[in-house]
Amino acid sequence: MTKIASSPSILRQRLKRFLYAPHNTGRLQVARISQQLSQLGPVFLFGGAIRDIALDGIRYFSSDLDFVIQCKPESLDQTMQVLSLSYPVSQNKFGGYRIQCDKWWLDIWSLENTWAFKQNHVNFESASSLLATTITNWDAILFELNSQKIICQPDYFKMLQQGILKLNLAVNPNPEGALLRVIRCLIAKPVNWLEPELFQYLKQQLSCISYQDLRQYELSQYSSCYLNQVSVELVNEQLLQSVNPNGLIQNCLNQLNFEFKYHD
């Protein structure tokens, strides 16, 4: 079993093996695409992919890859037209793109098109401002491909090691999808503790979106479904948990210890 990365240097070595020493078709495709994107400007791997490699290593990695490019959207549009000759490419309503490779989906967008910046939920100052745009603290991490620099908060690795999940940014253009990702993380990832703001977010969102509706939504969005494995009673038990003396709430949803193949 892979140990959770305890430092930037350990995580950097894992990311370098994944991105710069590819030995299968899927990783070769990612390397070629990222090289083309780097011609536009700095390229950042962002969010859940880095989290999963930090937690589980690269052997069983199966998440999508999010790439943010520091370039003009028009330049990215031109490059994506070229890439569409070799890969299936689709564009979303926010100006980003999705590429299908042999093993993974790549979500790609220009830095200035980040939804939280455009909607003024987060003030944009530099690429590091992306850290404030994620749903949880575990997703708030960047890897700049050229410099191989990891960008995150000082306590990032401590929070992973201790299994503490925090709410980072509650507003989202897809509230149902955001809630689903949080619950899937609580079920399938080594989350031991929730901080109170995330706990209140769960209670508030689950008062607006039913668990059954979330189950149906998961079926439509993912090939692997976790919510059907967890009862409504267990979810209600989670919502009744109290704050411990350290100001944290225990996560009940991962007590079943499923061996899930996690996909964010």
Describe the secondary structure blueprint for this structure:
Blueprint: H1 8-20, H2 25-38, E1 43-46, H3 48-56, E2 65-69, H4 73-83, E3 89-91, E4 97-100, E5 105-110, H5 115-118, E6 141-144, E7 149-152, H6 156-162, E8 164-165, H7 175-188, E9 193-194, H8 196-206, H9 211-221, H10 232-239, E10 249-250
Parallel strand pairs: 2-5, 8-9
Antiparallel strand pairs: 1-2, 1-6, 3-4, 4-5, 6-7, 9-10
Element-by-element helix/strand order = HHEHEHEEEHEEHEHEHHHE
Residue runs with pLDDT of under 50 for 5 or more positions: 257-264
Query: So what's the oligomer here?
Result: single chain
Please indicate the count of domains: 2
Bulk shape: globular
- Report mean pLDDT, rounded to a whole number: 92
Instruction: Output the CATH homologous superfamily of the largest domain.
Output: Beta Polymerase, domain 2
- CATH class bucket of the largest domain: Alpha Beta
Second rung of CATH, namely the architecture of the largest domain: 2-Layer Sandwich
Rounded to the nearest angstrom, the distance between the terminal CA atoms is 20 Å
Category from helices, strands and their pairing: alpha+beta
Number of strands: 10
Largest sheet: 7 strands, mixed
Description:
39% of the residues lie in helices and 14% in strands. The chain is α+β, with helices and mostly antiparallel strands and 264 residues long. The chain folds into two domains: 8-154, Beta Polymerase, domain 2; 163-250. A seven-stranded mixed sheet has the order 3-4-5-2-1-6-7. Strands 8-9-10 form a three-stranded mixed sheet. A hairpin with a 4-residue loop joins strand 6 and strand 7. It is globular and about 50 Å long. Residues 257-264 have low confidence and may be disordered.
